[in-house]
Design goal:
The chain has seven helices and three strands. It is mostly helical. It folds into two domains: 52 residues; 87 residues, Orthogonal Bundle (Arc Repressor Mutant, subunit A), CATH 1.10.10. α4 packs across α6.
């Protein structure tokens, strides 16, 4: 006669529960992959893409440019970086970090925002990137902020 241990009964019960959970998961996955669900998702994506495009057209190019400039100036660290770069010559990130009370990674993120906004340029020289101010962009920003 084969002896049954309480632990093996518990393990069999756990295995049954896991099998039931797996079957329920498979049923949910199958329900989400039905063609009508996929079609509804595609339609929703297309609707939101159209809505985003219409929202972009609702603003003039000048409004968008003012918003871009305002975002670039919206953090005191970025304003300080612009002041540091307003000297003759280019600076590398390490030189900027030494003047700032924030971490190097944070300075790099702020430099990326300023570069995307078109206020600074980055010239790569082997492993270093030399950042310099674009005076014409800064002049344009001053003009836009006066218009507000």
């Amino acid at each position: 006669m084969k002896r049954r241990y309480p632990a093996s009964a518990r393990l069999r019960a756990e295995a049954r529960e896991l099998e039931e959970e797996l079957a329920a998961h498979r049923a949910r996955a199958k329900a989400h992959s039905r063609p009508e669900v996929i079609k509804a998702r595609r339609e929703a994506r297309a609707f939101y893409a159209t809505a985003r495009a219409l929202a972009r057209r609702a603003y003039s190019a000048e409004d968008e440019e003012v918003a871009r400039v305002a975002k670039a100036f919206s953090h005191p660290a970025r304003v300080k970086i612009l002041r540091l770069l307003d000297q003759p010559g280019a600076l590398i990130c390490d030189q900027i970090v030494r003047e700032m009370p924030i971490a190097q990674a944070t300075v790099s993120q702020h430099l990326k925002v300023l570069k995307t906004a078109g206020f600074i340029t980055g010239r790569r020289d082997s492993l270093r990137v030399y950042y310099s101010l674009m005076p014409q962009a800064l002049q344009r920003a001053r003009e836009l902020l006066r218009l507000m």
